[in-house]
Amino acid sequence: MNGGIRFFRTIQVKLIIIYVLLILIAMQLIGVYFISTMKTSLTSTFTNNLNEQANLLSEIAGQTLSSQPEKPGNPGDQTREEYLGLLVSNLFSISEAEIQVMDASGKVLATSSQSHQSYIGKKNTSLAVSRALQGVRDNEEDIIDEDGVRKKIIAKPVVYSDKIVGAVYLVASMKDLYRTVDRINRIFMSGMLFALGLTGVLGILLAHTITNPIKALTRQAAGVAEGRFDQQVPVLGDDEIGRLSEVFNNMTMRLRDALSANEEEKEKLASILANMSDGVVAADERGYVIVSNRRALEMLRRDDCEGVKLSELFNMEDTLSALPKGNDQQAVLYHTQPEGEEDELMRVTLTPIHRREHGISGTIAVLQDITEQERLEQSRREFVANVSHELRTPLTTIKSYAEALDEGAMDERELGQRFVGVIRNETERMIRLVTDLLHLSRLDSNQAPLRRQQTNMPEMLEEVADRFSFQMRKKSIRASVRVEDDITTVWLDRDQIDQVLDNLVSNAIKYTLDGGRIEITARRMHARAAGSMPEQSDAYPSSERSSRPGRTEFATRASESGDQGRQEPSSIAISVKDTGIGIPKRDLGRIFDRFYRVDKARSRSMGGTGLGLSIAREIVKAHGGSIALDSELNEGTTVTVVLPLLTGGETS
């Protein structure tokens, strides 16, 4: 039984069946169309012939049935009936057809059927005759009589001088027509059976030429599946199957080479996975880890994670259970792990692995360390918020005072001048803010090139102290400038370094209480000390010229002797030290951030934009140096700028 079913499933049998069915369907369609067309044509010809006979008979009978007959020798009704009888019996005789002629009342005057002579003198009450006597010319009906013979009925009115004087009634058998159609059907069926038999024989021969090479290919494929790559399929021709045999032989050789290269590719993939900068963890459909790379283990702080559930590995059971199984194939999560004082922010991207017809067969997790990225994004958000806030405050003040002036304060001279002064101060504050922002932008985009020139260091520091002498006298702050005697001229951008020093000294004055002290020092940093923090200014000898408030004190220190004196200097450290209120330890890490203020209200009231130290840092970085800040709350602050000394700019 199974062998018979398998036989009918072979390609050979399928080809034969399809071939025969195609021929059968084609011949059936042709036959249906041909016989239908032929039958329609025969029926149309038969009906047209009857209509012509009926029309001719109605014209001839019109004169006979009129009240003034034109034919001599027929003066009475009897003679008219005999004349019509001869007319329908001889002139209009149709095979197996009956013709009747009726007067205007429907009474039968003549009939061509000898068996229906008794109908003469009686009325024909059929619907077709009634319609004809009413003047309807198209009266055709198809009927089947008691003997099962199909007949065609036609009734035509007899008109004479635009007056209906009678009717003509024809009943013709269609037996010969349908007998002809049946004969043609039998001829067509015989031809179709003969064609199907011939088609079956040709189909067997055709299928044999196709299936034999396929069987050989099947045997060879089974051998390849078992690992036998040394056999070849015979090529029997140059047709598609021959080409298939050639391609299969070529595929066998390529498969042998591919299997040998597969192991190498696996090793390459394992090497790539192991050396990826992102961590990768793959789990099966049950959620257990099956593959992980080295970077993932480093980020997860684990030695091995195979066999561990993803929900336990990332501690996110809810998210894994809600991982989409339809069109949404990805979920992005954030996972934080503590590491010392700072958390590491890790993004875990979960992607389900889809297999056709099997749904989700596993999950791949990609781990990325985005601590720095998130920190930069947070800084960007804070920067935008700070800019908006810094601009909104003066704009709100300007708007309020402008509205007050518009409402009548301008009429009071003293009050109006005070309001205008406030508006001017706030406008200048916004100008300073925008100027600092533009300066920062140019520094960030390297659009502020350095214009280095030989600069006298003691002179530059003295000028900085002189520029702020008035402010320092107002707060009774004493200032001193200390420069090593071997520091004379250096190569730097004088304008930009002046801006850095002005910012540092200005901050020192703002946050130093009355009667305080500010020290500006410059010293060399030798190769062995480069990169470390310079010593505090207390290391310098206190040889001060004057102690009056606001007067700048200047002292020098002799060059160090011994081995240190013979070392080549590599950089110069400029420090600004004050005895002000200091900065809390928690704020030291962000003191150089843009718009960051330790005491926001006090800094804003002093006119600061919160960008000074940021600009200073960018300028120092552009010079290839560094800036550092050391502070103790309520004891003071020291800001140190380290600048490299260029060879062309060193003078002794």
TrEMBL record:
One Pfam family it belongs to: HAMP
Cross-referenced PROSITE patterns: HAMP, HIS_KIN, PAC
InterPro entries: BphY/WalK/GraS-like (IPR050351), Cache_WalK (IPR057640), HAMP_dom (IPR003660), HATPase_C_sf (IPR036890), HATPase_dom (IPR003594), His_kinase_dom (IPR005467), HisK_dim/P_dom (IPR003661), HisK_dim/P_sf (IPR036097)
Molecular functions (GO terms): ATP binding; phosphoprotein phosphatase activity; phosphorelay sensor kinase activity
SMART domains hit by this protein: HAMP, HATPase_c, HisKA, PAS
GO biological process, one term: cellular response to phosphate starvation
Keyword Membrane in annotation: yes
Subcellular location: Cell membrane
Record's compositionally biased regions (Polar residues): 558-573
Membrane protein topology class: Multi-pass membrane protein
UniProt keyword Membrane, yes or no: yes
Region (Disordered): 526-576
Catalytic activity: ATP + protein L-histidine = ADP + protein N-phospho-L-histidine
Major localization listed first in the record, in broad terms: membrane
Domain named Histidine kinase: residues: 386-647
SUPFAM superfamilies reported in the protein's UniProt record: ATPase domain of HSP90 chaperone/DNA topoisomerase II/histidine kinase, HAMP domain-like, Homodimeric domain of signal transducing histidine kinase, PYP-like sensor domain (PAS domain)
Domain HAMP positions: 208-260
Domain PAC stretches: 327-382
EC number(s) per entry: 2.7.13.3
Name of the top EC class for this enzyme: transferase
Keywords: ATP-binding, Cell membrane, Kinase, Membrane, Nucleotide-binding, Phosphoprotein, Transferase, Transmembrane, Transmembrane helix, Two-component regulatory system
Bilayer-crossing regions: 16-35, 187-210
Protein name: histidine kinase
Species this chain originates from: Paenibacillus rhizovicinus
